[in-house]
Amino acid sequence: MDKTEIISKILDSYEEITITDEREDIVFFEMKGKEYGCWYSKIDQDTSSPFILVKNDTSYDYPHILPTSIPVDKNLANQYRYVCLDENDSTVIFLQSFEEKIVGLIEKLIKLLSLSDIEKEEEFQKEFLFYWNEVADCSGIFNVYLGQERKFQRLNVYKNNNGKIRFVANGISLNDVDEEINGKKKWKHLPELPAFYIPITDKRRILPPTRDKKWTAENIQMIVCGKKFNRISHDSYISLGKEKIKTNNVAIVFEMEVAGNYIDFTAIIRFKSAKNDTLLNKIRQEIIEVLPVVSRRVDYYYLCKQIGNETSLLDKKVLLVGAGSLGSYIAKEIVKAGVKEITIYDKESLVDENLLRHTVCDFWVGHSKAVGLKYELETIHPEIHINAVNKNIDNNLLISEIKKVDLVLFTVGSSDVQLEMNKVLKNKKCTAKVVYTWLEAGGENSHVLVIDYSKKGCFQCLFTDRNGGLINNKVNKNSDVEVYKIRNGCGGTRVAYGNAVLLRTTAVLLDVIRKVFEMPESLNKLIDITPISVMDMEDMFVERKCGCCGDENNK
Amino acid sequence: MKLKKQFKDFYDEICIHEESEDLKEKRDVLQKDIEDNFPDEMRAHGIELKKSDIEIFDQGSYKYSTTIQAKVIDRDIAVMIPLDIEKYSDPRKIKGYLRDAVNHVAARTVKIKEPCVNVSYYENGEEWMHIDLPLYAKHNSKIYLARGKEFASQYSWEIADPKGLNDDLCCRINKNEQLRRVIRYIKKWRNDKYENSTLDHEIPPSIGLTYLACDCFVSSITSEGDDDLTALQKTMTNMKNKFQLTYVGGELTKADITRYLPVEPFTDIFEKMKDASDSYGITFYNRLSTAVQNLADAVNVESEHDAGKYVKKVLGDQFKIPPKQTTSSSVKSKREHGFG
């Protein structure tokens, strides 16, 4: 039996379906007053699937029937539109027979055509941005930076020379906003386009615009001052009545929750005049046009949510001591994990030999590692703020910095530096959490030590024996190993350990930092990392006889 | 537990949690009009009424948060004044003065109805909201409701206790969110089943349903949370069992339900329904029985999809049916995603 026959036979078994036409690669049928086609590819592939088209349907008021036409007829005598019945990757097509694919499609089509009004609304809202962007004006690029707070507000509006426009919520600081090009500011305020953020608290009856149902004043009025129930909070409504506008344009970024996610869509609203009045009155009385525009939400909070980052890191400030290989890997990843503000101390400059295990590019060879890292990190996102200090940290600087941060991260190779800093932090009763991380000589193993100085245990415990005497770092596994060192001619050395250990250590550290803020009361801990294992040693390193944190009478 | 998400979605769909801003503004303006103009109207007819003596307060579902979406917003605002009802014994006249006090705005249509003054708002020729103003007189430490249409032969000052009624219902419903939800489900059921009813007293009154639901409520909570399906099924079953049935020759000829107001005037809330026609009670009983049977089927059936279909018969199209569970043994669907 050929494929057309198979499709026809299956379709014929449904009472509600009448076959109207058969072609080489498509079978047409009628159901619920409309004509559909089941189209399959002549090139047989186990991973391809037939699909459904609707023929000559001129309305756009049904979800999942895509607006654009597919040229099925060579002479374009009929219009065909794709009926989207599957989410990408939701089924393993390879496992299905051709018959099962057809039955599956028809069942889904029947289900789609049986949706109640409320289910149609739900489907439309799920695909809201698709429909919005389909009818939207694409001539401008609007990037939206909102925060975590869902509260009505006037947004700051900036425009650059390329015509890009940014809507920025209060409290969000962008690192390039004061940048200058040829003595002129890269981003300029745009007072002629006031912009507002309005969170929608009740999305009932809010449907996206379609080709035959554009948004008008009524849609905006329904959201802002709906008759039967409120779609925005009372506070938002009151604020709308206080905001004065004296332009004939305004941009509104609406936000609503759909299936557990927040979606944002922007409309430029044109008023009859530029007369000075409240935004509420202008929305009620003066709207002449609603122009959907394509906007992209791009703030750090949103981007973190999109990939499942822990958003509690967003407001944390970090001090990173050491911008060498490990420091650069860690800095880049903690930024991507949600940390937006880092102060970096390192006085070294980048050399060519650093390039393959440092995250900055060769542009920075000969320049400060800290400064190079600052620029590379800040280009990840404009909400990243890096304070690069081209010097090594000393006691006084450390004392001053710990007052401003939530986390101190040591990524320096020198035990002496870490022991010295450990003493300072203990003496000053540092309240920020402190993480020491170091690679062993040879670069095979590494360690992470988390210290809360209000508890017992510190970096020096690792260098203390049972009697209180000082020894070399006792948790290092192979400190006596012969290490292949490359001397750089001025007393410095470089160990050729590759870069895998950096990735291993960074991965462990990301989890550690997340837990530090998720469970602030957790115990100090030591983690040993080898090429084949990660061992959480809990608080085994605590030594009561440590000269720094041990009991006074044991010193 | 079945249909937890579907009940939550349905509740979110039918609920009105608070007054819309538009309604609030219209109510504020109306209240101000009453306070500003009612004393003048009364004075013009020789009755002294100070602005400060007018008491305006909420009544009805907005007061105890059991409002649901309906085609027309229905708001009850009580207007209470001190009045010697022995001297001014015709409440129709006083209601007329109240009507005249607010009947000067084109956007409003004001009518005198039997228990209240009705202020309707229209848009494009269609009523979208009305505010009912029951008028109360305080006299000798008692409160009386002005009853009677403008030209009706029957009229009276009927003893009442609107604040007592508010307090009683708030006390029963507040802090019992499952009961509040069940009341809203039952009101929605009533609205759907009586969608085409237009006759006076044919439709079971909201206050009656609310009291029956309170009396008959059975809470259902499982380890997975509130089980609204079971609570609704048990509550409606108990409501059904409250009917007194009369059969003649095996045929149901009468189905009476009685619920007395717990405050003045202590009358039967369903009295008017009963007085109007025996068939109204029978229809109410039969519709309730059908709902109870469908809910019982929903509770007993194994498949959540089938249970949803039964509940939809009771609560209407806005109740979403969960998808059928695939029982095929071959693995054809997968949970994975791109790696972008």
UniProtKB/TrEMBL annotation, chain A:
MF annotations from Gene Ontology: nucleotidyltransferase activity
UniProt entry tagged with the keyword Transport: no
One family name in Pfam for this protein: ThiF
Domain of life from the UniProt record: Bacteria
Keyword Phosphoprotein attached: no
Keywords for this protein: Nucleotidyltransferase, Transferase
Domain THIF-type NAD/FAD binding fold, chain residue ranges per copy: 312-509
InterPro entries referenced in this protein's UniProt entry, alphabetically: ThiF/MoeB/HesA, ThiF_NAD_FAD-bd, Ubiquitin-activating_enz
Protein's UniProt name: ThiF family adenylyltransferase
Automatic annotation (TrEMBL), chain B:
Database matches in Pfam families: DncV-like_NTFase (PF21654)
Catalysed reactions, as listed in the record: GTP + ATP = 3',3'-cGAMP + 2 diphosphate
Keywords recorded for this protein, A-Z: Antiviral defense, ATP-binding, Magnesium, Metal-binding, Nucleotide metabolism, Nucleotide-binding, Nucleotidyltransferase, Transferase
Domain Cyclic GMP-AMP synthase DncV-like nucleotidyltransferase, chain residue ranges per copy: 56-136
Name of the protein in question: Cyclic GMP-AMP synthase
Lineage: Bacteria, Bacillati, Bacillota, Clostridia, Lachnospirales
